[in-house]
Amino acid sequence: MQELQQGELIGEKYKVKKLLSQGSFGKVYLGRNIENGMKVAIKVEKQEMSNCLSLEREVEILKKLRGIPQVPELLWHGKHNEFQVMITKMLGFDLIYFLKKNKKFSIECIFNIAQQMIEILENIHKKNIIHRDLKPENILAKSHSDQIYLIDFGISKSSVKSKKQNKAKIPFIGTSRYASVTAHRGLEQARRDDLESLGYVLIYLFKQKLPWSNYEKFENDRIERIGQLKFEMKPQDICEGCPQQILNYMTQVAGLNHQQIPNYQKLKLIFQLKINHKQHIIFDWSNNQFINSKTIQDNKTNNQQKYESVQHIKLSVEKTSSRHLHTITFHVDSNASSCFNSQQSCSMQNSFGSHQSVQVDFLNSESSVQSQKKENKLSTFDAFILNDDIMPIKDQLQLMELENQDLEIKHNLLHYRSVYYNFKNPFTGILSLKIN
């Protein structure tokens, strides 16, 4: 197959950037609209597959599905250098990419995928389109989006409108890992077959394997072996180790007949989380985080532990300093640092009520001035709670650890050098001025 070259212009405004992927039907390139900078996906059909009319079929189906928000928007199609080209909006990365990046998906994330996919299938089924190739690689998402997209309608077709299923055997169509039993038997697929394939996708996303995964290594009779196992296994066995909701879903789908219109709303409700358990459902790859009552409680516990840690350091410093030198009290703020300037020294000198108490604050934050203004309104613990909205817990813990180490170093330098050995004591001059 002739490849597109980087910088090549298609349709007078779509520039080729690089190759993204390739499959049995063709290749997909990343491109850009030179007029508005929008990223696009450029799909090129292999010349040897042109007789299958796969790309032409996909173009016609996308025209029928125009207006459905979670399927690709067709931007341009036609011939370029003697082969068929189709250009759509760039919709992100597939679920396998995010699964490898996140190691695994949360139940909430998988349930949200299920609900959105059922809605997408309902919308395309209303247009009498059966996808016939549902798999994680054909479900895309963006890192900052709360929507998923269904792509690759190259082997999709209009649903059969006859009341009886055609018994004539047809070649296997789909991906063996996720294809329905009907597809393995060589029969025409209907709405229920897309829903069955979705069930296998959900199981794979949860367990990262399927009961027939070991059969995929067989080359000659892989499709037959996997199809036979799917036919013989009960939903309980296929869904072993999965949440009850997935079993309920597969059981309902298995009860549908060939031409029955599924109750999509009922299927979506299976994966609906309880209202009192959540504030909202999002994807694991989103910047936001799933929030529930347990998460909030865990955050409060972590904040309390950090608060107690700071209080412990302050108390330890005060006790140690008062034990060895009664005229000096070290007060270490939670935002302590390793230096103070002459203006801060002057402010400390002016704050003395008597020469028996010296307060030392180590300031290292632009927010310290604001925090001092709010100290009469907010407790230290409340301040931690507010800061959590800005900085993630992981980063706060790392910062706290560094600050604790910094406090320990400063305490050793100030205490042991100034008090035990009494050379170059930074407070000697201040004390003498105050006494005089």
TrEMBL record:
Query: Which stretches are transmembrane?
Result: none
Which Pfam families does the protein's record reference?
Pkinase
Write down the InterPro entries for this protein, in alphabetical order. CK1_Ser-Thr_kinase, Prot_kinase_dom
Name recorded for this polypeptide: Casein kinase I
**One annotated GO molecular function:** ATP binding
Record the organism.
Paramecium octaurelia
Give the signal peptide range.
none
* Domain named Protein kinase: residues: 14-283
